[in-house]
Amino acid sequence: MASLLGAQVLVASNRGPVSYALGEDGSLVARRGGGGLVSGLSSIGPETEAVWVCAALGDGDREAARRTGGSLDPADTGGQSVRMLDINPGVYTDAYNGVANSTLWFIHHLLYQTPLEPVFGAEFRSQWAAYEAYNTAFADALAEEAAEGAAVLVQDYHLALVPGMLRERRPDVRIGHFSHTPWAPVEYFRMLPDDIAEKLLHGILGADRAGFLTLRWAQAFMQCCQRILGPDCLVQWPKDDTPSLVSFEPGRAHKTWIGVHGLGADADFLRERAHRPDVDERMAALREQIGPGRKTVVRVDRTELSKNIVRGLLAYRQLLADRPEWRERVVHVAFAYPSRQDLEVYRTYTAEVQRVSDEINAEFGTAGWTPVILHVKDDFARSLAAYRLADVALVNPIRDGMNLVAKEIPVVSDEGCALVLSREAGAYEELGDESIVVNPYDVLGTAEALHEALTMPDAERAERTKRLAAAATALPPQQWFLDQLHALTD
Length: 490
What we know:
Blueprint lengths: L1 H4 L3 E4 L5 E5 L5 E5 L3 H7 L8 E5 L3 H10 L5 H4 L3 E5 L3 H20 L13 H24 L5 E5 L6 H8 L4 E6 L6 H4 L4 H11 L4 E4 L2 H15 L3 E4 L7 E6 L2 E9 L6 H7 L3 H14 L4 E8 L6 H14 L7 E8 L6 H21 L7 E4 L4 H10 L2 E4 L9 H8 L5 E5 L5 H4 L4 E3 L4 H12 L3 H15 L4 H13 L1
Parallel strand pairs: 1-4, 1-6, 4-5, 6-7, 7-8, 8-11, 12-13, 12-15, 13-14, 15-16, 16-17
Antiparallel strand pairs: 2-3, 9-10, 10-11
Helix pairs in contact: 2-20, 5-6, 6-7, 9-10, 12-15, 13-14, 13-18, 16-19
């Protein structure tokens, strides 16, 4: 790999591979993270002198950054070189909550109630200035850390301006940007103020390569460039589905290649982790809650607005109302782990999930049967236990860049599961043929899909699960990461 790259590798993301908590005695307790980037970066070896640049997210992180000058102790990071940026908390909050999560996330997931929102006034412009400052801090740090000809992989919508900023500072480095979310259709993206929409597009076009999870999201980005940037931007649409985009900057041409890399599940890790004793203990507890002989409809999500948990619950209630034969015979195991609770709209949504769950249990529950088992405390071992028990997996997002849950459950399921999958999930492109596909807004249609999934013959369910698992693991995290490096450095 070192000979292939011939260069240092840098990764930039809002969240890093380690986080810190402050102990009562003032000590710092480090906790290493997981995920595709962590395993991917660890796969390239020490000879590349990889550096991860991230933001301090809380008080513990900020204290760690202050004590170390931002260069974290390798003992805390598993030997990785990590630079953590101590960005002003007010700037960070406005950039992260005000722009990234309350604006860009809503744009790309089509979440606005447009008669009332968005409202781009003076407050938003102040938040946008913070977003620019936040991106500038990353661009400055990357420019400082990067060796001559380094490869820099910038991650996600939080850092959409970084490629363009870094290009100005270090034209010698090779820059990639990867979007982990969907990309909004041009009509929706144009809700943004014109100058900000253009800045976001030009920011990503500062990269040599822009990556997306599916061809659909890549094409939506290209259409935005074509329609919004106008004649200064030339878009090429090759027939072989490997599109390239050429952006003509003032005075010179700059070419940004568009790549599609559909992140897959890590089968080896999931299967090993799913058979540890703590998972077995949680399986026993869940079986006791479910009761003997009952089928399970499983969902595992954060209480993120785009995950569509409430409509999923409504569809399950419709199933029980329309198909009384399923009463006492099925349980909806719903894990809805709180997300972004510092934002009021998320707190309201989490409360609505609880309310609808309670309503279903009050309406249909009996002394020996609880129709919905809702857990809101994050527990990875319990999630894996539910994966193994699932007869049906319900994944019905309004819109999702990929959705790894849809890929993980077929990999881990003990007896095979039927997948009810939204056509608006990125995973639909790879898993749609073996799934029961639903319109995420159609509660009646989703209820019928649940019935179809619950009545699927065992042999068919087992065969579909095998094909789903094969498709889900086609590009595991390490290979996903390395493929992007190959594409950027070739």
